[in-house]
Amino acid sequence: MNDEKVRGRVQAPEERITNFKEVELGYNDEEALKEANRCLQCPNPRCVKGCPVNIAIPEFIKGIKEGDLKRAYEVITRSSSLPAVCGRVCPQEKQCEAMCVKGIKGDAISIGSLERYVADQAILNNYASTTNVHKNGKRVAVVGSGPAGLTCAGDLAKNGYDVTIYEVLHKAGGVLTYGIPEFRLPKSIVQKEVDSLKKLGVEIKTDVPVGNAITIPELQDEYDAVFVGSGAGLPKFMGIPGEDANGVFSANEILTRINLMGAYQDSSKTPIKRVKKAYIIGGGNVAMDAVRSLKRLGIETHLMYRRSEEELPARKMEVGHAKEEGIIFDLLTNPVRILTNENNDVVGMEVVNMILGEPGEDGRRSVTQDDNSLHTVDCDMVVMALGTSPNHEALKESNMVLTERGLIKTEEEKTKTSLDNVYAGGDAVTGAATVILAMEAGKKAAKEIMESLS
Amino acid sequence: MYKVLYNKRISSNSFEMAVVAPLVIKRAIPGQFVIVMAREDSERIPLTIYDYDKEQGILYLIYQVVGASTEELTYAKDEIFAVAGPLGNPNEICLHPEEYKDKRIVYVAGGVGIAPVYPQVKYLKEHGINVDVIYGSRSEDLLLIRDKIEQVANKITYATDDGSYGIKGFVTNVLEEHIHDYDLCVTIGPVIMMKNVCELTKKYNVRTIVSMNPLMVDGSGMCGACRCEVDGKPKFACIHGPEFDGHKINFDLALKRMNVYKEEEKVKWQEMKERLSKEVI
User: Fold this and answer.
1) CB-based contact, B70 to chain A, within 8 Å
2) How far apart are alpha carbons B51 and B201 in whole angstroms?
3) I need a surface site. Which of A222, A271, A379, B92 has the fewest CB within 10 A?
4) Are B23 and B106 found together in one domain?
5) Do B51 and B124 belong to one domain?
6) What does the alpha-carbon distance between residue A331 and residue A307 come to, in Å, rounded to a whole number?
7) Are A243 and B257 in contact (CB < 8 Å)?
8) How many angstroms separate the CA atoms of B192 and A298, rounded?
9) Which of A124, A157, A180 is the last residue before a domain boundary?
10) Average pLDDT, stretch A370-379?
11) Are B76 and B122 within one domain?
């Protein structure tokens, strides 16, 4: 039986490397219906268990099958505040789709693509619920407008709470705005999600560095509860010689310039280096985002990762897209020194080959350096995409208890922190993770806040 | 949007701007900075806080036109798109003035560096600490806010390269002459000047605080564009600074890192001048 999944249309690789438009074009009505009809509507659906926010997946797919997209949307939004975002950036292949029974012998249902289809139709046809919410007079402050903060704010606002979000940047969205590129998550989609929160009455105060302009103790006095979703923004560097050269950047800097500041457009007032050859060091989704963004600026782009392809932490789909786009993968290789000229400009790197060993305690295979393999490569840009850790700017003057790793400590299985009426979630608590896990934490926190304030 | 009360030229290449931004200055302490954007599509530019009126909620900034984005800012007459702050850490003396009561302190400012020096000197005077100021520039017309700094400084000495005002020479000439009068120096201005001041004070073993102003994007610890080498280690000026122990800064590196986008900035400035000239017509 021919039961392959319906593949969504994509922009052709040779075309998309010349623009920043979305790569995945999404399903049209016919494709969505065809894919929805593949769903077996399991009475005891495993996919729901694979979803961090437990969306009633068969139920929303049933909506598509029956042509009732509005109901499909309502089913999704019962559990998820940002469906158009999650449909695009969730690692479904490790979550809901990994659990799908159809995946055992063939292709799993493309749940992510169907979610995105429903969410996009909802935006197009304005399905957003406009039900009047009865205000309960309770006020909650949310620190950070990334996925955790937006989700927490949305759930609270839908339940009658007055919510104010504090954001340090000039635009809301956190990593959805500064981090994930336009070609994976159009900024117009993020803006729509933010606008729908505003329609619910959520106030967003941009340009406010919590910790400096207003402190968490002050927010505790002013509000009934506080949610901290300040993320993990501090980029890591390798600590190798030459890393302070002109032309060595964090992936965050490259992505912020391109996404938040629009530096890929000639009209942008924020510059970006249009170099000839760049190496991006790392193998996660951020590394993929950075390398693919730079490719679109006409730069010869290499991804250098110290383990092999199998260990790449990035989503398989992103790796596939990157390969199609002509990104050169230099695997089992690691830089040890960045070479510069007299002006401190990057001119190359000294790199070594790496040898994979046995899996360590964390399940990842260890790597050791092959000392006899030292060689040099030419380049004029090096981008470090080695992960990020939280900074504690927002926590100034708060005596917030942290873990040994410098993350905000919460009560076991809870989002409640060591401070009265202060909750936290997302990367600030877990370290750098995914959008959906941050959303899940935002949801959990909203629930705990409502329980404690009722 | 933030209301601009005025945005006026105060020298051939410097402007003073007053913006209504009550939340930005509510808790601000001298030494901190802000990030401004003239328009929604503008670059984010870091500027030091020059003065503030906490009751009225007014923030005062002084900035020098050095490229496309500062040029564009001069055209903001009614409102600007963003003012984020306060960012960075306060000056350590202003944060704990009681610990510095017995210290003999000198501030050494160069050019537009007087803008961040002024609020510190004023704040310290209000907290019972009188400090001397040495202020230098290339020539008289580039010496800014003389009347204001004279009101708050214990003693002020001017130095100009061409001798058009005050002593002919550099701030370091003045400082070396009086170096034994001081236990602590704060210097803010062009990187090359701060470097020269630090070389001098190191020789005489006078502790020196500098305020670094490297390239920045977000200003909140996220991009790392502003990293400086302090005591051999990378530090982010935005969240670890902007003030550091001047004797531990790698100034040669800081000077080179300022040039990262030099070529791109030149092109953008030219484009900006053309665009603005059309808009004005």
Assistant:
1) no
2) 28
3) A222
4) no
5) no
6) 6
7) no
8) 36
9) A124
10) 95
11) no
Residues of B in contact with A213 (CB under 8 A): 23-24, 26-27, 85-86
User: Would residue B105 count as lying in a domain?
Assistant: yes
Rounded distance between C-alpha atoms, residue A394 and residue A403, angstroms: 16
Q: Is residue A132 part of a domain?
A: no
Confidence check: pLDDT of A263 > 80? yes
In a domain, B221, yes or no: yes
Minimum CA–CA partner of A175 in chain B: B222
Largest CA distance in chain A: 70
Q: How many domains does chain A have?
A: 3
Is the same domain home to A240 and A382? yes
Residue B244: predicted pLDDT: 98
Strand pairing report for B227-230 and B233-236 = antiparallel
Dihedral (C-alpha) B146, B148, B151, B157: value to the nearest 10 degrees? -30
A382 with A396, same domain: the answer is no
- B281 inside domain: no
| Residues near A160 by beta carbon (within 8 Å), at least 6 away in sequence | A133, A134, A135, A136, A138
- Chain A partners within 8 Å of B86 (Cβ): 209, 212-213
Distance from CA of A233 to the nearest CA of B (A): 5
- Chain A CB within 8 Å of residue B272 CB: yes
Nearest CA in chain A to B22: A213
Which residues in chain B touch residue A392, judged by CB atoms under 8 angstroms apart?
none
Q: What is the CATH number of the domain that holds A27?
A: 1.10.1060.10
- Interface subset of A 10-29, CB within 8 angstroms of B: none
Q: Which domain holds residue A67?
A: 9-124
A408 in a domain, yes or no?
A: yes
The arithmetic mean of pLDDT across residues A349-372, rounded, is 90
Do residue A256 and residue B257 have CB atoms under 8 angstroms apart? Answer: no
Q: What is the residue range of B57's domain? A: 2-88+263-276
Chain A residues whose beta carbon lies within 8 Å of the beta carbon of residue B218? 168-169, 178, 256, 260
More confident residue, A132 or B155: B155
The per-residue pLDDT of chain B, averaged, comes to 94
| Pair B50, B98 in one domain | no
Q: Which residue of B has its CA nearest to A346?
A: B260
CATH number of domain containing B64: 2.40.30.10
Task: Please tell me if residue A273 touches chain B, with a CB cutoff of 8 Å.
Answer: yes
Alpha helices in A346-453 (DSSP H): 427-430, 435-453
